[in-house]
Each structure stands twice: as C-alpha cells, then as structure tokens.
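To whoever picks this up:

The nightly regression suite flagged Lipoprotein as changed. Nothing in the input moved, so I suspect the structure step. Input below, exactly as stored in the fixture:
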Amino acid sequence: MSLRTIASTAAFAVLLSACTTTSAPSNPIEARWVGQSAGAFFARYSPPMSDTPAGSTTLYNWRGGYQRIKLQNGRTANVSCAAQITVDEDYVIRKIRITADRQGAKGQSYCEELLTES
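Regenerated output under the current build:
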C-alpha cells in the first residue's frame, strides 16, 4: 500500500469518527432512565396511558406519581408528572420529555424528584 493510500484512509477514519456523536442526557431524569428497560419504568411508576408507533420506536404517553406533598413554603399541593417516553424496538428507553410538571417538595420539579429517586 502506498503512503498516499494510508494517509487517505486515516483521514477518512478521522472524519468518520468526528461525525459520530454520543448525546449526553440533557437532564437528571434522562440520565437515570435512558438506556433502561421501559418495563422497569412502567412497573415502578404505572403503565402508560397510550402509545403511538413511530417507525422503529414507540412513543408512550405516561402520567403518574399522584400524591399530596408538603411544599417548602408549608402549603400542601396535589401533584403528578406527565411525560412522553420514546422506546426502541428492544423496549429500551431512548428519550424522556416531561410534558407536565409541578413544584416539588424540595425544588422546582416534582417529576425530577419522583423519577430520579433510588
């Protein structure tokens, strides 16, 4: 093989590796659940309300975590969380988008408190 061919092949490999990106989770909920089984999520928090096939993925609409909590200001509130969960053909969570959230007992997001607890 000539030096030119080796250099071209190496440059092409570098170019391809630069195109491959690994997206980091954009929030603590995705950090906890992306890559995990949707079955484990739904078993822990309740089944989805509906699902929509979307090619090789399925989009689940989920709502759960209904409870009454005491807020930091001393008041109480009825809270729940709603999300759209994208699941691949292997039933693995690929994305979670929160669609309805309330103030939590400890901070701004009840969904984050609920879905990231151990």
